[in-house]
Amino acid sequence: MPHQIILTDQAPAPIGPYSQAVKAGNTVYVSGQIALDAGGQLVTGDVVAQTHQVMKNMSAVLAAAGLSLADVVKCSIFVKDLGNFATINKVYGSYFDEATAPARETVEVSRLPRDVDVEISCIAVAG
């Protein structure tokens, strides 16, 4: 199955050998997004500000693929400190309707790129 690389200047450019997202058929796989603005500058501030930036980036990449957060079926959340789970969850939850929220997992990791507190990736399906 041929695939299409998704790239937008409305989200930070990849900082390694990967794509912002890849579309295969009607499924879009969005790479992990961290708290960088579209210009690649680290968003400083607490985990609330970081999580909002991550969601903004993810939304921009999805939009470039012709999709939105409503099309997301699965998210993976990586956090540096699971003690921030409730705060991240509250921000994350504000972007989804609880009745139709995607599947997900949240995993604590020892370190994330650029020493951010949160990274989120997702899978979306056009429908």
Notable characteristics:
single chain, 127 residues, alpha+beta, 60s Ribosomal Protein L30, Chain: A, six-stranded mixed sheet, 6 strands, 21% helix, RutC-like_sf
Please provide a written account of the structure.
This protein has 127 residues and is α+β, with helices and mostly antiparallel strands. It has one domain: RutC-like (60s Ribosomal Protein L30, Chain: A, 2-Layer Sandwich). It contains two helices and six strands, in the order βββαβαββ. Strands 1-2-3-6-4-5 form a six-stranded mixed beta sheet, with helices on one face. α2 links the parallel β4 and β5 (103-108).
CATH class division: Alpha Beta
Uncertain runs with pLDDT below 50, 5 residues or more? none
What is the CATH T-level topology? 60s Ribosomal Protein L30, Chain: A
Number of strands: 6
**CATH level-two architecture:** 2-Layer Sandwich
The strand order across the widest sheet is 1-2-3-6-4-5
Strand content: 25-35%
Structurally, the number of domains stands at 1
Look at the helices and sheets and give the structural class. Answer: alpha+beta
CA distance, first residue to last residue: 18 Å
Any idea what the shape is?
globular
Helix content: 10-25%
Major beta sheet summary: 6 strands, mixed
In the CATH hierarchy, what is the superfamily? Answer: RutC-like
**Alpha-carbon Rg, integer:** 14 Å
- Kindly state the mean pLDDT as a whole number? 96
